[in-house]
Amino acid sequence: MKKIISLLIITISLSTQAQVQSVNLQASGLTCSMCSNAINKALKTIPYVDKVMANIRNSSFEITFKPGSQVNFDDLKNKVEDAGFSVAGLDAVVDFNNTAITNDEHINMGGMYLHFINVTDQALSGTRTIKILDKGFVSPKEYKKNARYTKMECYKTGVAGSCCTKSGVAAGTRVYHVTI
What we know:
Helices cover 26% and strands 38% of the residues. By secondary structure, the protein is an alpha+beta fold. It has one domain (16-179): Alpha-Beta Plaits (2-Layer Sandwich), CATH 3.30.70. A 9-stranded mixed beta sheet has the order 1-6-7-9-8-5-2-4-3. A hairpin with a 2-residue loop joins β6 and β7 (112-116).
């Protein structure tokens, strides 16, 4: 019984407590206010989305979430694509609680796996903005540029493979590649 409790404590301590507060999503392909409205309506159908504020001038959307929600960046991207557009950039505002990050390594952020690329080793505390670098979240040119910062296969596939098992990420788990 003591071994089970110890294992549970270790597992909980390896999972970083952090909360995604909001995201700024840059969309591409918009030509008018009706396009913006289509994305706005689509994003509001996600159950954990609290508010969506569109900025037509720069084709961006400030999205806030209901407190305690588990955010899935792919849900946001898929809703934009379902509305007939694409994501040109996604920055997430995250509240970190003394989270240690290491360049080209993975962390478990409350069940979401983040792979930090092109960062200095540090501890993150307070509100910080992270940029999602995965395919479909940045331009193809930027995606290719960021590939030089890691040799791990998960950057190409978006899911954990043999490169991630040493970090404790199960094969096939979605991994988001991010930078500060």
